[in-house]
Amino acid sequence: MRAAPPVRVPSDGAGLWRGVQWALHAAAACVVAYWAAAHLLGPDARLAAASLLAGLLWMFLVGHRPPEPPRHLAWDGQVWTLSRQAPEPLAGRVAVMLDLGSWMLLRFDPQHPARPRWRSQIWLPLKQFDAGAAWPAVRAALFAAHPDAEPTGPRPPARPAA
């Protein structure tokens, strides 16, 4: 089987993905504020309004963080790497989490994470517009079977030893 061709694409956390993150942060802040107030003071309509205000305030604070510099995801025919402005790229595995045709959300798992696995995962939005002519090659590399990839589906039951 032929390997997918080498490809390199930018991934910036701006635009739609950043808006979705803001909205999720605000919703989480609203829920936590309402839960805490309802358990301490009892349910009330004013608490719902106050929790909505807390969520909007949190969204405002999160929204004023500086945007992250763009990252570059590359496939060299053997390994996925993720680089920023650092001289040494991170090697790892990529999994497609959401595919909307012209927009994808990927999860990058570094090979040698410095933190626990669930905290070292990096979420990358990819847009067809940013990838340009490389978009078909990116999709081919993402969906091609890689020989070192772990199976992700259900495993067959183990047979007992005779």
Description of the structure:
By secondary structure, this protein is α+β, with helices and mostly antiparallel strands. 38% of the residues lie in helices and 23% in strands. The chain has helices at 16-41, 45-63, 117-120, 128-131, 135-143; strands spanning 7-11, 71-75, 80-83, 90-99, 103-110, 122-127. Strands 1-2-3-4-5-6 form a 6-stranded antiparallel sheet. The longest helix has 26 residues, at 16-41. The two termini are 36 Å apart.
Quickly count the helices: 5
In the sheet with the most strands, the strands line up as 1-2-3-4-5-6
Helix content: 25-40%
Instruction: List unreliable stretches of 5+ residues.
Output: none
Straight-line N-to-C gap: 36 Å
Radius of gyration: 21 Å
Characterize the largest beta sheet: strand count, sense, and whether it forms a barrel.
6 strands, antiparallel
In short:
The chain is of the alpha+beta class. It contains five helices and six strands, in the order E-H-H-E-E-E-E-H-E-H-H.
Task: Give the tags.
alpha+beta, extended, 5 helices
Task: Describe the SSE topology.
Elements: E1 7-11, H1 16-41, H2 45-63, E2 71-75, E3 80-83, E4 90-99, E5 103-110, H3 117-120, E6 122-127, H4 128-131, H5 135-143
Antiparallel strand pairs: 1-2, 2-3, 3-4, 4-5, 5-6
Helix pairs in contact: 1-2
